[in-house]
């Protein structure tokens, strides 16, 4: 990851980070480079958290599953994972809290920096059934990188996810979580909202040099989960992305 800093802005330090992702199959390897503008020392969603490159790498590794799908990123912040999903050919909607217009502006900047057009950016506050939530088309994949960082929000995040899964039962929530304390858990809320989680080992989609290349302190404590509906009308072995 490369960083360039422009301290001439009056909004703290503005920097640009360059992330490079690799995916591989037996026959080919593919590389994607994404540029993300950030504001250092500002609010939560103004810089890229260690969870984001891990989820973005998973998205790029599964590029073929995203093509043509409708993907909603929640708590986008600088929108690294949503931008990568758009580069995979998904129809992407980025979102952040209605209370943080700066984050929504950041999402727009990230799209512009990567020459993306046609990506919608909407205010979407977790746990609230708002007009932008109701107006969404059926979503195949929800992306959420480091949305479980404050325990007070855990249930609200899952309420929004469960709401969207009720509208499209095969929808999946791909999320990354940074382990900050052994006592934090979403298990109770998963059960309350009829959801289930499966962990995907990070080593199964990241190459050996990934942590070093990303240069994000804390990246080694990031876990990736796929959350799905437990509802009985969800075809058990069918995924939104197959
Ligand atoms: C820890 S940051 C992660 C940002 C980004 N996904 C990343 O990994 O770099 C959490 C994000 O959630 C957003 N957020 C916080 N509370 C929210 C809420 N109640 N509803 C929607 N988004 C929220 C913040 O603005 C921020 O962008």
Give the SSE order as H and E letters: EEEHHEHEHEHEHEHEHE
Helix content: 25-40%
What structural category arises from helix and sheet content?
alpha/beta
Instruction: Choose one word for the global shape.
Output: globular
Quote the beta fraction: 25-35%
- What small ligands are held by the chains? S-adenosylmethionine
Radius of gyration: 17 Å
Largest sheet: 7 strands, mixed
Q: Major sheet: order of its strands?
A: 6-5-4-7-8-10-9
In round numbers, the mean pLDDT is: 89
H/I helix tally:
8
Q: N- to C-terminal separation?
A: 32 Å
Task: List segments where confidence is low: pLDDT < 50 over at least 5 consecutive residues.
Answer: none
Please count the beta strands (DSSP E, at least 2 residues each).
10
Describe it for me?
- With 242 residues, the chain is an alpha/beta fold.
- It has 8 helices and 10 strands.
- It has helices spanning 51-61, 63-66, 80-87, 101-113, 131-134, 154-167, 187-192, 210-214; strands at 2-6, 13-24, 29-40, 70-74, 91-96, 120-123, 141-145, 172-178, 195-200, 222-229.
- It has a 7-stranded mixed β-sheet with strand order 6-5-4-7-8-10-9. Strands 1-2-3 form a 3-stranded antiparallel β-sheet.
- Helix 4 (101-113) links the parallel strand 5 and strand 6.
- Helix 1 packs parallel to helix 3 (80-87).
- The longest helix is centred in the middle third of the chain and has 14 residues, at 154-167.
- The chain starts with a strand and ends in a 13-residue tail after the last strand.
- The mean pLDDT is 89.
- The protein binds S-adenosylmethionine (SAM).
- One of its GO terms (biological process) is methylation.
- It comes from Batillaria attramentaria.
- Keywords: Methyltransferase, S-adenosyl-L-methionine, Transferase.
- It holds the Pfam family Methyltransf_16.
- This is Methyltransferase-like protein 23.
